């Protein structure tokens, strides 16, 4: 049997917990983490800020495209 994969948390103290099979991989940095460190906020993900910015821009564009214009409402 192959050895269990271990959490890839980089820090002062290395985490030796086993990686979660289904949700242990971070979608932003593609590293694998244990249950305690799987969230991007908990392992100081380097790509988190760019992901937030992309989501912000996407939501902003969607909201602006759905903006109600007063002239359209007057005709209805």
Automatic annotation (TrEMBL):
<feature type="domain" description="AN1-type">
    <location>
        <begin position="12"/>
        <end position="50"/>
    </location>
</feature>
<protein>
    <recommendedName>
        <fullName>AN1-type domain-containing protein</fullName>
    </recommendedName>
</protein>
<dbReference type="InterPro" id="IPR035896">
    <property type="entry name" value="AN1-like_Znf"/>
</dbReference>
<dbReference type="GO" id="GO:0008270">
    <property type="term" value="F:zinc ion binding"/>
</dbReference>
<keyword id="KW-0862">Zinc</keyword>
<keyword id="KW-0479">Metal-binding</keyword>
<dbReference type="InterPro" id="IPR000058">
    <property type="entry name" value="Znf_AN1"/>
</dbReference>
<dbReference type="Pfam" id="PF01428">
    <property type="entry name" value="zf-AN1"/>
</dbReference>
<keyword id="KW-0863">Zinc-finger</keyword>
